[in-house]
Amino acid sequence: MYNLKTFKRSLDASTNFLKKRFKDKPDITLFLGTGLGSLSDKLTNKVVVPYEKIPGFPKPSAFSQNNTVVMGSIGKNKIISFEGRFHAYEGHSYQEIGHPVRVAHAMGARVFIATNIAGGVNLSYKCGDFVLVEDHLNLMGGNPLAGPHEPWMGERFVDMSEPYDKKLIEVAQKVGKEEKIKLKEGVYTAVLGPALETRAEYRYLKKKGADLVGMSTVPEVLVARQLDMKVLVLSVVSDECDPDHLEPINVPKILAIAKNAQEPLTRLLVGLIHRIGKG
C-alpha cells in the first residue's frame, strides 16, 4: 500500500518542476505509445524534458520509447505530451502509472488523448488498422484508484458508464474522413503482461467481447476519468491474434507497423487538436 503523503509530495515536485519550464497552461495531454511519438515534431515553441530529470517521476524501462515530456503548441492549443508510458509489468505500481496524468491535470490539462499499439482479437482487424476505443475491459488485476484517498484526488467512486468521450470520438471520425483515414471502433482489453496471450486466452478474450488487447492505457484512463478529463484513445493494430493461425511474436515487424502508422496518425491527431480548438 502506497503512502499518500509521499505520493502527494512526488506529484507536487513533478508538477512544480515542469511548471517552471513550461509557462503556459496546457489544454491537452497526449500519451503516445511505442513507436508512435512523431507528433512532437509538429509542436511549436517546444520544450523537451527527459523523464530522468523530473523530480518525483517514476523511472521507465520500456523499449522503443523516448521517455521524455514534450511541451509546446498546436494552433491555439497548448500541449503536454508524454512520450513513453509506465507499465505494471515493469514493476511500477498503478499509482506510479497514473502519476503523469495527475501531473498534467494539475498543470491545467482537461483533455486526455492516448495512443497505443495493440493486438487485434477481432479477426476483421488487420495489421496497421486504426481503432478508436469505445470501451474497455480491465483484466490487469489492479486499479490506480484503489488505496488511500483524499478529496484532491477526485471522486472516490468513479462513474465509468461512458469513459471514452462520445463527442471526441465523433470529431475524430470526421477528421478521419477528411484525411481519408479509416477509423474502426472497438473494445480494448488491458492485461498485465509481459507475456503475450496463449491460444486459449485469445479465445477467452474474444468470447468476453474484446476487440483489442494490450498492456497499458486503462490505468491512465481510470485516473483521467477520476479527474473528470475528457478521454480519447486510439489503437494501432500491431498483430492479428487468430488462435487458429497464431504466429510467434515478431518485434521488428510490430515496430515497423508502428513506424508506418506515424504519418497518418500524426495527421489525424493534429486535425483533431485543431478541431478541439474550434470549440
Q: What would you say this structure looks like, in words?
A:
This protein has 6 helices and 9 strands, in the order H-E-E-E-E-H-E-E-H-E-H-E-H-E-H. The protein is of the alpha/beta class. The chain has a 5-stranded mixed β-barrel with strand order 5-8-7-6-9.
Strand order of the largest sheet: 5-8-7-6-9
Shape descriptor: globular
What's the architecture, going by CATH? 3-Layer(aba) Sandwich
Output the radius of gyration.
Answer: 18 Å
Low-confidence stretches: none
Level-1 CATH class name: Alpha Beta
Write the CATH fold name: Rossmann fold
Can you describe this structure in just a few lines?
The protein has six helices and nine strands, in the order αββββαββαβαβαβα. By secondary structure, it is α/β, with parallel strands linked by helices.
Keywords:
279 residues; five-stranded mixed beta barrel; Rossmann fold; alpha/beta; single chain; globular
SSE map:
Blueprint: H1 4-21, E1 28-32, E2 44-50, E3 68-74, E4 77-83, H2 94-107, E5 111-120, E6 130-139, H3 166-178, E7 183-191, H4 199-207, E8 212-214, H5 218-226, E9 230-240, H6 251-277
Parallel strand pairs: 1-4, 1-5, 5-9, 6-7, 7-8
Antiparallel strand pairs: 2-3, 3-4, 5-8, 6-9
Helix pairs in contact: 1-2, 2-5, 3-6
